[in-house]
Amino acid sequence: MRFSGLKVLTQGLTGNRGWRPHWRDPAPKPEYDIVIIGGGGHGLATAFYLAKEHGLTNVAVLEKGYLGGGNVGRNTTIVRANYGLPGNSEFYSHSLKLWEGMEQELNFNTMMSQRGVLNLCHSDGQRDAFARRGNAMRNQGDDAELLTPDQVREKVPYLDFDNGRFPIYGGLWHSRGGTARHDAVAWGYARGADQRGVDLIQNCEVTGIDTEAGRVTGVQTTRGAIRAKKVGVVVAGRSGQVAGLAGMRLPIESHVLQAFVTEGLKPCIDHVVTFGMGHFYISQSDKGGLVFGGDLDFYASYAARGNLPMQEHVMEAAMTLMPMIGKARVLRSWGGIMDMSPDGSPIIDRTGIDGLYLNCGWCYGGFKAVPGSGFSFAHLIAQDRHHDPAARFRLDRFSTGRGIMDEEGTGAQHNLH
Ligand SMILES: Cc1cc2nc3c(=O)[nH]c(=O)nc-3n(C[C@H](O)[C@H](O)[C@H](O)COP(=O)(O)OP(=O)(O)OC[C@H]3O[C@@H](n4cnc5c(N)ncnc54)[C@H](O)[C@@H]3O)c2cc1C
């Protein structure tokens, strides 16, 4: 079933009786060439690109809950390519290009909106750092513009420019950044993978990883054993637990990240805006809600729910930057479990077990990575060699110390990235 304007029109005129389910609900087969553990954004994109780019369709995605029920359906939907360090820079640049063609590629409306991302700076040092980052972005072929305080005021007049502690010194403007509808991205990739023959198996938790003589042979699940020649682990906040099933200990800590949405308001925030002196970022959804978030909880946890101290911390940052937000009522808050790596950059690599591949460490920035990560992970699994833009995301950088990509410059403390 292809979507088009004509299809919407004819369905609307004929009682909407012709729509079909977006994907099948197959029972697991006893054996696949490739099993992907985790039906989040990254797992579904991996399956899609395995089928589309490499013609590999004897593939299953095993999801313990429902597709899109994890972080891919819980994030604040910000998409950008404004990284400064080699390794991250080329990867996110590639990912943003895939975002720009995604709706055509998937024939699915993911509501991609390149409304621009504005990072605010509040000191001379921060402005210098933004200038360096902007230059790195431009060298990579992406867009970046350093704005003066007056140019910022023109774009976002509602900010508190004269805040005594955090005056606004300018901002880094990234016009190709923006937002997309998070669960539509999961659904689009799921539909595309299913159409190409991939089995998407929900309510199927992986409880064991089978190996023989240093090679993966399959997985144990709540729906029985499944043999596989290759297995990809891409389970975000559960990475440590699932890798533990194969006897591996990862350099990953799991932390909760919360987000918030207000009641629907008339359009008032046209871009994505981030506060440089507190961890706070905001955009307005198409329904009118102000969607915002901030720091993650500073202790490790698997509880996918928020708590009051962090809510207070984030709201304080919001009020400091844009006092007008105090008039809006918060409707909901929620949490997701983040896979925090020691340098804040991800891992897409082989493991010490033949045929077992790992994709994790996305911290709180893995939504924008969905297409790039799926593309690169599929390349690695299919061809057993790294895809160039993701070639630096090696697991062994944490044991050798070579190739660390500490984008935030905060050192090896998971919760500071
Ligand atoms: C509040 C919040 C705000 C965020 N904001 C942004 C943002 O604005 N921009 C951005 O780029 N990123 C953001 N992120 C981060 C981003 O959402 C994640 O990095 C990304 O979604 C993680 O990858 P995923 O989609 O594959 O994860 P998930 O959707 O969590 O997928 C992992 C899947 O694995 C499944 N699984 C786990 N264990 C097993 C098992 N044993 N067997 C089978 N399946 C299993 C889970 O059920 C889950 O569905 C945010 C995250 C949160 C929580």
Give structural notes.
The chain is α/β, with parallel strands linked by helices. Helices cover 28% and strands 26% of the residues. It has 10 helices and 18 strands. The protein has helices at residues 5-13, 41-54, 88-106, 124-139, 149-155, 182-195, 239-244, 308-321, 370-383, 397-400; strands spanning 31-37, 59-62, 78-79, 117-121, 145-147, 170-174, 178-179, 199-201, 206-212, 215-221, 224-233, 253-264, 272-275, 280-284, 289-300, 330-340, 347-350, 356-360. The strands form 3 sheets. Strands 1, 2, 8, 9, 10, 11, 17 and 18 form an 8-stranded mixed beta sheet that branches. α2 (41-54) runs parallel beside α6 (182-195). The protein is globular, with a radius of gyration of 21 Å. The two termini are 42 Å apart. The model has no long low-confidence stretch (mean pLDDT 96). Flavin-adenine dinucleotide (FAD) binds at residues 37-43, 62-65, 69-72, 74-78, 205-206, 234-236, 238, 242, 257-259, 293, 336, 362, 364-368.
Tell me briefly what this model is.
This protein is α/β, with parallel strands linked by helices and 417 residues long. It has helices at 5-13, 41-54, 88-106, 124-139, 149-155, 182-195, 239-244, 308-321, 370-383, 397-400, and strands at residues 31-37, 59-62, 78-79, 117-121, 145-147, 170-174, 178-179, 199-201, 206-212, 215-221, 224-233, 253-264, 272-275, 280-284, 289-300, 330-340, 347-350, 356-360. The chain has 10 helices and 18 strands.
Defining key terms:
417 residues; 10 helices; alpha/beta; binds flavin-adenine dinucleotide; single chain; eight-stranded mixed sheet
